[in-house]
Design a protein that fits this description.
mainly alpha
Length: about 80
């Protein structure tokens, strides 16, 4: 009779331990879920408050090309046997 009582107490203790272990596992999973949801990366895109200024000097480059082409045409007309 004593052995039966001891076995019943041991089973109750093991069942309580398993229940506590399951609760700890569930608590750990909830903590991990909260941690991962708190670490979600966020990307924020905003337009600049001041306009972007880009300076290009394309006009000067175009003028130089036109002058070189005109000079080449004049030289070819003046010297048709140059080539």
């Amino acid at each position: 009779m004593v052995e039966r009582h001891t076995n019943k107490s041991a089973r109750t203790a093991v069942a309580a331990f398993d229940g506590g272990r399951a609760a700890l596992t569930a608590l750990g999973l909830l903590a991990a879920l909260a941690l991962f949801s708190a670490c979600t990366p966020t990307v924020k895109v905003e337009a600049p408050k001041e306009p972007i200024t880009i300076n290009l000097n394309v006009k000067l480059d175009a003028e130089v090309r036109v002058k070189l082409e005109e000079q080449a045409q004049e030289d070819i007309q003046e010297n048709p046997d140059i080539f």
